[in-house]
Amino acid sequence: MYEGVDVDTVTRYIAVAVGGAIGAMLRFYLGGSILSRTAAPFPTATFVINITGSFILGFFLTLVTERINVSPHLRLAIAVGFVGAYTTFSTFEYETARLVEDRDLIRAFLNVVLSFTVGFAAVWLGIIAARKMYRVPLMSSRAHFQFEQQANADDTKLSGIGMRDSTNTDDEAKKSKPRTRG
Hints:
By secondary structure, this protein is mostly helical.
């Protein structure tokens, strides 16, 4: 009945869906909570959510690429599903376009500049926090890239940002057959 169904692939999709559902619900809740407390015409809710999401992604991916070995399904659930649904570039763009349309160019400019600069700073703070938490030395991007290349040379590549399966080498993958339901 399920001939040819790759259970691992289905599990990855389920992981992304579950993470996405949680991220979307949290975004909906926090967005409403922030909007009910602010009356400013600045898109505060989207800004706060995108900045905290940037921090979460920087923190989480630093931990899982440099220190903690977690299941590739958990990586997908959090980095792609949760953070992907929690943050929103399209809402940021729409709100900025509405500010421009309303000729509120100062707020539109501030939204763009602050979102990118503070978002970048939040990702960087997440990286630093994760490294300090586990006392991992700060690396230059080149050193980090070389570290990743060497440490993960034999890893099975998964789809999505930072989604490597560091627990399964190519030799192990050749020995194991895809899991299917028959």
